[in-house]
Amino acid sequence: MTAPKHAFGRIFCCLVAATIATFSHLAHAQLSHLPAGRVVAWGDNSQLQTNVPSATDVVAISANGDCCSLALRANGEVIRWGATLPVPPTVGPAIAIAAGSQHHLAVRANGTVAAWGLSDDSGQLTVPSNVTNATAVAVGEFNSMALQASRVIGWGANNLNQREPALVVNTNISAIAAGANHGVALKSNGTVIAWGNPGNGGLRLAAPSGTFSAIAAGADHSLALRSNGTVVAWGLNTVGQSSVPPTLSGVRAIGAGGEHSIAVLTNGTVVVWGRYRVDTTNRPPAGTTNLIAATGGFNHSVGLRLDSVAITTHPQSQTVFEGATVTFTADATGGQPINYQWFKNGTVIGNGTNSTFQLFNVTTNDIANYFVRVRNALGEVTSSNATLLVNVRVSILEQPQSQEAGVGDNINFRVVARGTPPLGYQWRRNGVDIFGAQSSTYIIPNVQETNAGNYTVVITNSFSSVTSQVAVLIVQSPPTITQHPVNLTVAAGSSATFSVAADNAIGYQWLKNGVPIPNATNTFYAIPSAQASDAAGYSVIVSNSFSTVTSFTATLTVTVPPPTSVTVLGWGVEQVFNGTEWIDVRPPNTLGNVTNVAVGGAHSLALRADGTVVGWGDNSFGQIGIPPGATGIVAIAAGQHHSVALRRDGQVFAWGRSDNFQQTTVPPHTNVIAIAAGANHSLAVQSNGVVIGWGRNDDGRATPPPGVAPARNVGAGQDHSLAVRTISTVRGWGGQNVYGEASPSTGLDGVIAVAAGANHSMALQSHGAVVVWGNNSFGQRNVPPFAAPAKAIASGANHCVALLQDGTVVAWGNNANGQTNFPTVGSISAIAAGGDRNLAVKLRQLDMQTPVRLANGRTRLTISNDDGLAVTPEQMNRVQVLASSNLVSTSASWIALTNAKSIVSGSIRVEDTVTNLQRRFYRARENP
């Protein structure tokens, strides 16, 4: 359409300044947070354009083309002056304004746009219904624009495409400005676009490239402000309105009139270039300073002036006592809003943003220099320092403690106090000052009974004093041993008791080879059934509350009967470190009548045929100290530091370490038929098939899950558990199960026994096959071929052992310490494995030398042990010599020789008195 012409001439409206535009979207209740000041104006006053209102809370300004201007107050009220149009009562409260010669716009607080003016002949006053949630407005000659949801909506005249930019670029808009017949927009990325009247070769639309922070539009030219404070102008330059002074910098806001441009510098002064429509001065009047924004009409200019901030009352230094409330206050004047920021020793205080700053319950941590920095839109000022000193009354943090000492000890009384230094100390005994005792500690060397008494200390500073509580010093004599323990020699299995007598004693601790014996804290120490492992030196530490004395060492000698017909073999590691010392874990050569063995962390157990148990190796936790009543044993098991035994009547015994309740929480049980020990937990199967567990249980290893019962056998690994159910299947539980060690493969049946290592598990099937699952880092699952079916299995940490029915042993897996190198020996009857070592029970074999025919026709036979140990009389009585004339005859044809036997050089010698035989065969056997 063609825009109508009016006697008022060409008009325009621009954004006031970047600072104002940035906040134009705020609701009116928030306008009070914007810089608010007074309006100043200069230039033509023929229509009262420079007769500014007296309001001091103006937050936005807008000047029209010829004669009038608008201002927006912090309360949302729109005010006018000059020959401008009256403001309808329906306009406010507003959050943004734009003034024109013939019509004005305002954005209400609810986001709708109000328009009023002389004429609506181009539709400039007809606000489209889709204009909602507007944030800014701009006025052209006969058109209007609003910024809504980051895009421009225009209405009114559009004969020069001045209403709004092309849709392709009409997005992400943050600010708008309007000239007579062109528009300018600032995008959120800082770029500028222009549209509308392309006259004069398109100069009006030649928007500059780069990044900008504010825009303004005159009648036929435009301005943009860079973030570095420089200005770019384009469009018509007939009177120099687009010729930015070359030295212009430090600009904080821009504005544009009809044919002149305005820049507000950061120091609050103004620079103007171009000219007005009529010949009037285009320079601001003298004293126009402290401006933060400016806008222009054709013949006049308007600025928003802010008073500089100034501190009228500085915070004052204070000295207070600890716990007081301190208030620092600063008063300031200047243009609102005024912001405060308090600092402590130069560091920002997070909540210190008011004119007063309070500290509650102050401590010495609050001692510092405090100041406040006051700021408004023009700048900031800093107050003088206010020093806070906090005096602390004396208080005692740590009282001197009562002590009981022996004659000759060194005594050190100590007090810890706080308070403002310097602190003074004076120690007292029984209320009397001690000369020279004036520090926080009081030392009495070589204390005597005369030093006993009540001790206090008085602590002072310049304004307070406090006296400590009483510390009582008791001085006593050391204990005296009147009867020392004596040497003992006993037979293995007999009792041995050491005793001591002492005066002035209240505590006793018995030692074995210098190592404390757990729970041995009486005047006597009894060993109910002394074994070879008990042979040692025994002493006792006698003590009272302040001193100790150690008795003489008494030696216990245990006589052990010679070995019998069974030997225990060991292979793999020979020494294990228990955290304190290296322990020799090799089986002793004094073991006899052994039927089974068990391997623990650094200790081992052996079960004798008579139902007694022998232990060797580490005894740091009493794990080889067989408890009273542990007789008639039928099964044994060993954990890392604990041991378990099953008595013939179904009773379970557990002893050794109990940091995870391995031996102190054996659950109630009846008729146990099988046991197993893991690293720190134990399992048992009752005759009814119920599995019970105790010890460490952080991963459920000691808690059998539902469905395990009825069971008949169990196995325990490092931290997982296994059970053989009565239907010959296997269930697993506990542990991390990283390698599936607690998850046996489906279809595994016919199982009669299980064993568990660190992260792998084993099962023995009824037909003699061995199945392994879990970790295979050392080839544990690679079961080798067997020469005969297996009849027993055992598992170390990372290796496996199988006992075959022919009495041989096969081992595989980790061999770092030779644990799979089983020595070639005779028939094996039992095996055990743990860690990196193994044990085996070897049935001792008899060797017979080649028979010797004597001159008298008799035959001499010599029989010895295959392990080289000498034959004892007890063993000789069990050895039977048989003879037969047919080597392949039935056992019934072998006849026992009744001739007298004797021991010669550790071997049995016997003569066959039958003479003149063509052929005679002999064999020997040892009966149980």
Provide an overview of this structure.
The protein is an all-beta fold. The protein is built from 3 helices and 82 strands.
Strand % is over 45%
Shape: elongated
The oligomeric state is single chain
Number of helices: 3
What is the CA-CA span between the terminal residues?
Answer: 129 Å
> What's the alpha carbon Rg, rounded to whole Å?
53 Å
Overall mean pLDDT: 87
CATH homologous superfamily of the domain at 18-305, by name?
Regulator of chromosome condensation 1/beta-lactamase-inhibitor protein II
Q: Helix proportion of residues, in percent?
A: under 10%
Main structural class: mainly beta
Low-confidence stretches at least 5 residues in length (pLDDT < 50)? 1-30, 277-282
Please name the CATH topology of the domain at 18-305: Methylamine Dehydrogenase, Chain H
Q: Which CATH first-tier class of the domain at 18-305 would you pick?
A: Mainly Beta
Per DSSP E runs of 2 or more residues, the count of β-strands stands at 82
Main beta sheet: strand number and arrangement? 6 strands, mixed
CATH architecture field of the domain at 18-305: 7 Propeller
Key terms:
single chain; 928 residues; mainly beta; Methylamine Dehydrogenase, Chain H; Immunoglobulin-like; 6-stranded mixed β-sheet; disordered N terminus
Short overview:
The protein is an all-beta fold and 928 residues long.
What's the layout of helices and strands?
Blueprint (H helix, E strand, L loop, with lengths): L17 H5 L15 E6 L14 E6 L4 E6 L4 E5 L11 E6 L3 E6 L4 E5 L16 E6 L3 E6 L2 E6 L16 E6 L3 E6 L4 E5 L2 H4 L9 E6 L3 E6 L4 E5 L15 E6 L3 E6 L4 E5 L16 E6 L3 E6 L4 E4 L4 E4 L4 E4 L1 E3 L5 E6 L2 E2 L7 E4 L8 E9 L2 E4 L3 E6 L3 E4 L4 E4 L4 E4 L1 E3 L5 E6 L2 E2 L7 E4 L8 E9 L2 E4 L3 E6 L3 E4 L4 E4 L4 E4 L1 E3 L3 E6 L2 E2 L7 E4 L8 E8 L4 E3 L3 E6 L6 E7 L2 E3 L4 E3 L9 E6 L3 E6 L4 E5 L15 E6 L3 E6 L4 E5 L15 E6 L3 E6 L4 E5 L15 E6 L3 E6 L4 E5 L16 E6 L3 E6 L4 E5 L15 E6 L3 E6 L4 E5 L14 E7 L2 E7 L2 E3 L3 E2 L5 E7 L7 H6 ...
